[in-house]
Amino acid sequence: MAFEVPDLPYPYDALEPHIDEATMKLHHDKHHQAYVDKANDALAGTEWEGKSVEEVLKNLDQLPDDKRTAVRNNAGGHANHSFFWEIMSPDGGGDPSGPLADRINEAFGGLDKLKEQVNAAGVGQFGSGWTWLVHDGSGLAVTSTPNQDSPISAGQTPLIGIDVWEHAYYLKYQNKRPDYLQAWWNVINWDEVAERFDAANG
Question: How far apart are CA 48 and CA 87, in angstroms?
Answer without folding.
Answer: 27
